[in-house]
Design goal:
Number of strands of chain A: 10
Shape of chain A: globular
CATH class of chain A: Alpha Beta
Shape of chain B: globular
Number of strands of chain B: 10
Strand content of chain A: 15-25%
Oligomer: heterodimer
Radius of gyration of chain B: 20 Å
Structural class of chain A: alpha/beta
CATH topology of the largest domain in chain B: Rossmann fold
Helix content of chain A: 25-40%
Strand order of the largest sheet of chain B: 6-7-8-3-9-10
Strand content of chain B: 15-25%
Distance between the termini of chain A: 54 Å
Mean pLDDT of chain A: 93
CATH architecture of the largest domain in chain B: 3-Layer(aba) Sandwich
Order of helices and strands of chain B: EEEHEEHEHHHEHEHEEHHHH
Largest sheet of chain B: 6 strands, mixed
CATH superfamily of chain A: P-loop containing nucleotide triphosphate hydrolases
Number of domains of chain B: 2
Low-confidence stretches of chain A: none
Mean pLDDT of chain B: 93
Bound molecules: adenosine-5'-triphosphate, magnesium ion
Distance between the termini of chain B: 43 Å
Low-confidence stretches of chain B: none
CATH topology of chain A: Rossmann fold
CATH architecture of chain A: 3-Layer(aba) Sandwich
Radius of gyration of chain A: 22 Å
Chain lengths: 290, 281
């Protein structure tokens, strides 16, 4: 479990360019949860998640992981890094080794995994992200943007962390890879009971995969709850620079045209059912259009 | 005009293997066109884009910008002035550490008077909604804010062509829409040719022409409307159609008279409304 207690983080503290990127955050993340974090560009999402594995230290407040205050003097912060894995927003920011093998092995070796086990864990990680096994000798920088992202994800998932944080993991992935990876993470969450934290700009992704979503705005948590409930607050979301899934917008348009369409349609299947429900209503002789 | 002839591209990796990223590309893009390039990860989109303004030079084949070969060194400045580019990773694009300086940097080579330079930088930053960050250090920006600055740095040049390599991949939905309408405006009012790489299939609808890449080759060159009608082809390319296209296709299969080529939400709602009223021809 991860818990934030009145956390504020100030960049460039005590200088004239100081800026509170997150403000007085209180948050509880339960084990086994699939949590999504959404919010406008610059709203503080990355800053928030970088507190969860001790990459950033709160300017004010405390962060607890499994009940432990991770910045308590006697506590060894590196322990948290093995428990809570973070995939960076820009994969290049976490890659530094000569070849893909060493890149993925790095965390495993640091965690004291026996050399004999490392290879099979690496193969598993490559399978997870859908990369071929023959890339291990190549430099991680000799790849396309999407391929680099997959390598970065592989090096974090190889550690099988209890909590995995994904900062916009599908940015730059092709639709097939995005779908495949999110399904794998859902499976990691459901069948292995691991916690997944997903920072995303895709409202479709959030509705389909997350149990709970928190909405960041100007460094604060402005809403939280079940995605299907949050997305009914269209106007509030729009005010915060956010949006609702595309298919829902079509049905909201239909409502404007006078049809009594439901305002919680998120998938193609739901849309189909709603269309035929409306059709049956109109068949009955009702006319909704003024 | 950008004209690419028989272009091949090999990367030599750091462990001395050869990877063929482009295979026999032939492509002509006319001034004022709006072209989307889509394709699976590793299909060669960024490599192709980097050949359009001389960041990469062909070993096999040729690239001409308004008739000038990118390989010839004396054409260098002309090509940089004619074709601007936004990189997939904005970090690779910044040359200075302060936002305003970075945007102005590109203009300094163009011998533009100081006042005009200032004005253009301001406009470019306002276009992406980042003027208030003009004195910020680039390092202090969030992921999406960096993308916006990279876009400003390219449009400030007002070149004949702009190549955007996934410029919206980390933007929130509203910023994405703003950037999309910015691109449309640049295209329609200033007649700037736009080459737009994206993984957001909804954004492909902005373009008049779509190029699909697979394994280093161009495998399709068509209009967005036609592209999305062939879902099987798209999926075989590791791509997909927008959510509403799937919906319209499903209704179509079930005997409803709905045009599956619709990509606009309002049009889609009108089409559904007409079908519900039963008064569609
Ligand atoms: N190193 C830094 N120094 C100063 N300010 C920073 C720094 N990093 C981020 N900020 C500022 O803190 C705020 C929050 O940034 P953060 O990266 O957490 O946003 P985000 O929600 O992840 O945005 P995005 O969706 O664009 O990635 C932004 O306004 C940003 O400009
Ligand atoms: N610096 C490099 N060294 C070696 N091979 C490379 C390099 N950059 C790209 N490649 C390879 O060239 C091919 C095309 O890469 P490119 O970056 O053009 O793809 P892309 O279509 O832009 O992919 P993405 O959607 O992931 O950005 C890929 O197989 C990739 O592995
Ligand atoms: Mg971020
Ligand atoms: Mg690319």
């Amino acid at each position: 479990m991860i818990q934030f207690h009145n956390v504020t983080y100030t960049y460039n503290f005590n200088t004239d360019t100081c800026k509170d990127a997150i403000k007085n955050i209180n948050l509880k993340i339960l084990p086994g949860e699939f949590l999504a974090i959404i919010g406008q560009t610059g709203s503080g999402k990355s800053t928030l998640v970088e507190h969860m594995n001790g990459l950033k230290k709160p300017t004010v407040g405390e962060v607890f992981v499994s009940g432990q205050d991770i910045w308590q003097k006697k506590f060894d912060i590196t322990k948290v890094r093995f428990k809570v894995g973070l995939v960076f927003q820009y994969p290049e920011h976490q890659m530094f080794e000569q070849d893909v093998f060493s890149e993925i092995a790095f965390g495993l070796r640091n965690n004291g995994i026996a050399e004999t086990k490392i290879e099979s864990l690496i193969f598993e990680a490559l399978d997870f992200v859908g990369l071929p096994h023959d890339i291990l000798n190549s430099s991680p920088f000799d790849f396309s943007g999407g391929q680099k992202r997959k390598i970065a994800i592989a090096s974090t998932i190889a550690m099988q962390p209890d909590v995995i944080i994904l900062d916009e993991p599908t940015a730059g992935l092709d639709p097939y890879s995005s779908e495949l990876l999110l399904k794998k993470f859902k499976d990691y969450n459901k069948n292995k009971g691991k916690t997944v934290i997903l920072v995303s700009h895709s409202m479709e992704e959030v509705v389909r995969f997350a149990d709970r979503v928190i909405v960041m705005h100007n460094g604060e948590i402005k809403m939280e709850g079940e995605p299907r409930k949050i997305f009914t607050k269209v106007e509030e979301l729009n005010e915060m620079g956010l949006d609702v899934p595309q298919i829902l917008k079509v049905f909201l348009e239909l409502r404007k045209l006078g049809f009594p369409a439901r305002a919680d349609i998120y998938t193609v299947e739901e849309a189909k059912q709603e269309f035929f429900r409306l059709k049956n209503l109109t068949k009955g002789g009702k006319s909704f259009v003024k | 005009m950008i004209k690419i002839e028989n272009l091949d591209c090999m990367y030599k990796t750091s462990n001395n293997q050869m990877v063929q990223a482009l295979k026999g590309i032939n492509l002509t893009i006319n001034p004022g066109e709006f072209v989307a390039i889509i394709g699976a990860n590793g299909s060669g989109k960024s490599t192709l884009a980097k050949h359009m303004n001389g960041i990469m030079l062909p070993k096999e084949g040729d690239v001409f910008v308004f008739g000038k070969n990118t390989k010839e060194e004396q054409n260098n400045l002309f090509i940089k002035k004619s074709v601007g580019m936004v990189f997939q990773n904005p970090d690779n694009q910044f040359v200075t550490s302060v936002v305003e300086e970075d945007i102005a940097f590109a203009l300094e080579n163009l011998e533009i008077p100081f006042d005009e330079m200032h004005e253009r930088v301001r406009m470019a930053l306002e276009c992406v909604g980042m003027y208030e960050y003009k004195d910020a250090s680039i390092e202090s920006l969030s992921g999406g804010q960096k993308q916006k600055i990279a876009i400003a740095g390219a449009i400030v040049m007002q070149p004949k062509f702009l190549v955007f390599d996934e410029p919206t991949s980390m933007l929130d939905p509203q910023s994405r829409e703003e950037i999309c309408s910015l691109l449309k405006r640049l295209n329609e009012t200033m007649n700037i040719g736009i080459i737009f790489i994206t993984q957001f299939m909804e954004e492909v609808a902005l373009a008049k022409r779509v190029i699909v890449m697979n394994d280093g080759k161009i495998v399709k060159d068509i209009s967005p409307g036609c592209l999305f009608e062939d879902i099987d082809f798209l999926e075989s390319m590791k791509l997909k159609a927008p959510q509403i296209t799937y919906f319209c296709l499903e209704l179509n299969k079930l005997g409803e008279n709905i045009n599956p080529g619709i990509l606009d939400l309002k049009e889609c709602a009108d089409e559904l409304a007409a079908a519900l009223k039963g008064n569609k021809l």
